[in-house]
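SAMPLE LOG
Freezer: B-3
Tube label: C17
Construct: single chain, 308 aa
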Amino acid sequence: MVPGIEQRHLVARDGTRIGYQVREGEPGAPVVVLANGLGGTFEAFRHLYAALAGYRVLCWDYRGLYSSAQPADPRANTVVHQVDDLLEILDAEGVDRAVNVGWSMGVQVNFELARRAPGRLAGLMAINGPYGRPFRTVMSSRFVHQVIPVLLRLVKAQADVVGRAARVVAGSDALIAAMKRFGMVSDTLDMDAFRDVAAGFRTIDWRIYSDLLSRLDEHDAEDVLATIAVPTSIVTGDRDLLTPPATSERMHRAIAGSRLIVIRGGTHYTPVEYPAIVCDELHRLLARVPGWRLGARVAAPSTAGATG
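STRUCTURE (predicted):
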């Protein structure tokens, strides 16, 4: 569990109840916003919260997941809608600018924020995520790109069956062992953190989840990359099957002045596999953003395994 979290909510412009989490920092502390992966909760960022001691930290749940309600209009669950919710949260919390950290889907969300409200961004950190249309790059396979929509339709049609299965296997030792065997997670995985992340999938409505994932593939922010003018760090794993390193390399080439960190042995779950490296890079990013350095840098464990 992450200590000091306060759960809050607001009613968005279309009447959807949006849940979000705030951890207050030192008086006048800079703000860091965490944008999660699809299906993750703030618990996925437990190591980043520890590294951000003293900062004010905000996170939120995407529409239809966890503490956020499903919108009345089932079409109102695009990446743009998620960004609009974040902007309302920032306004409600009196936050003009923040350093935004995104993991997986959260990377796309932050790039869309850069399109819609670039003045609200002081810095960006993109962890294991694409700039858009993720089905095109998953496993670097055109075949998989064609198969995923079919699988999502099947999941939606059999949502109750999928939900029952998820309640049994999510976070189980058998599932983690299988994921390790197929290279989907590293042997360095923080088992407790991963179980907390996976536990969230036991409560998911798989009809909503499959819809959200489909909407994610409709989004593309490739045109935004060259316009980003704030300090930016890109972190990926060299074994990430969901967002292969080539995707991060393209982002790095397109975003002027960005840093690219490739973690040897890292998969899609680097924040809970190699947290020392990820947190070290986060501190390096904050040091590059004027006004966002808070006191002395927290000492981090060894960062062996990183290249950049």
